[in-house]
Design brief:
Strand content of chain B: under 5%
Oligomer: heterodimer
Number of domains of chain A: 1
Largest sheet of chain B: none
Number of domains of chain B: 1
Number of helices of chain A: 8
Order of helices and strands of chain B: H
Largest interface: A-B, 37 and 27 residues
Shape of chain A: globular
Radius of gyration of chain A: 19 Å
Chain lengths: 239, 46
């Protein structure tokens, strides 16, 4: 926690991101190359779903990261509203489009998986609908943070939306248990351990780690830009 | 890759376009903002 407070200073954060970004980019590219080989070539087809199971290697990690990204937004929102951390608002502005991107990947790849398995691209199922709501919450956050002439007001309004919207995360997670859904129940993060064979579980976890690195890379890169953009706006105001 | 290859490849293409697009737009925005800062003599200290 002390380390996080240390990074709350924008100048320190920028020095940290400058040091980390090159090696993070290298690791992401390397892991992505191995991950795509595992996902598209090495892993076996599923005995029921055939090759469509390969969609899972991008769909499921994208869903996890979309949810984790929103939890991050809520944490940053709390940090902004309670402690007024100067970096929290900038990082929230940087993170929201990244989370929305992963959410869009989850929804679209899910539709492409649903068509051959369920016979439909979309159904108004509790899991799919709550995930679509998460996407709209992301869009709302992006729109609200840019809706005011004073950026601080936009940041505070978006932070409140992030905190209110966090209630949707347990709904997404448990929707498959609370309601009868077409979407399959949890098969990795469940009591009793994963129900997936290691030949499919290992590529899935590898791709999740890879996309996590990409998520962190994008957030650091965009936060760095937001710090510069805020400097530019301040310079314009003073001119 | 079986009759479902079109769905599998489309899914990976969608992921590439969205996530690759995010990366490219992030880099482009960073370069633009840095150019504008440099034009005002506010470059970062190394």
């Amino acid at each position: 926690m002390a380390d996080l407070h240390f990074l709350a200073n924008p100048a320190r954060f920028r020095r940290f991101s400058q040091r980390v970004l090159p090696s993070l980019a290298f690791a992401t590219v390397l892991m992505l190359a191995v991950g795509l080989y595992m996902a598209l070539i090495q892993s076996p087809p599923d005995y029921q779903q055939g090759d469509t199971v390969r969609i899972m290697f991008v769909h499921v990690p994208s869903a996890w990261l979309a949810m984790a990204g929103y939890a991050l937004l809520a944490g940053l929102g709390a940090s902004l509203l309670i402690w007024r951390h100067p970096l929290a608002a900038l990082m929230a502005r940087a993170s929201a489009p990244v989370g929305a991107g992963f959410c869009a990947v989850c929804l679209l790849t899910g539709a492409l998986w649903g068509r051959p398995m369920w016979g439909a691209y979309w159904v108004w199922d509790a899991r799919l609908t709550s995930m679509l709501l998460l996407f709209f919450l992301y869009l709302g956050h992006i729109a609200l943070s840019r809706a005011y002439d004073e950026p601080e007001r936009g940041d505070r309004a978006a932070a409140i939306l992030a905190l209110v919207g966090v209630i949707n995360l347990p709904i997404i997670k448990f929707s498959v248990d609370w309601w009868n859904t077409l979407h399959q129940p949890a098969s990795v993060a469940r009591l009793g351990g994963p129900s997936i064979h290691p030949s499919i579980l290992i590529p899935l976890l590898w791709m999740a780690a890879t996309l996590f690195l990409l998520f962190v890379l994008l957030v650091l890169l965009r936060t760095d830009t937001e710090i510069d953009r805020r400097r530019l706006e301040n310079a314009e105001l003073q001119a | 890759m079986s009759a479902h290859a079109v769905y599998v490849m489309s899914a990976y293409l969608v992921a590439l376009v969205i996530l690759g697009g995010l990366l490219v737009s992030s880099l482009a925005t960073r370069n633009r903002v840095r150019r504008e800062l440099a034009a005002r003599g506010l470059e970062r200290k190394k």
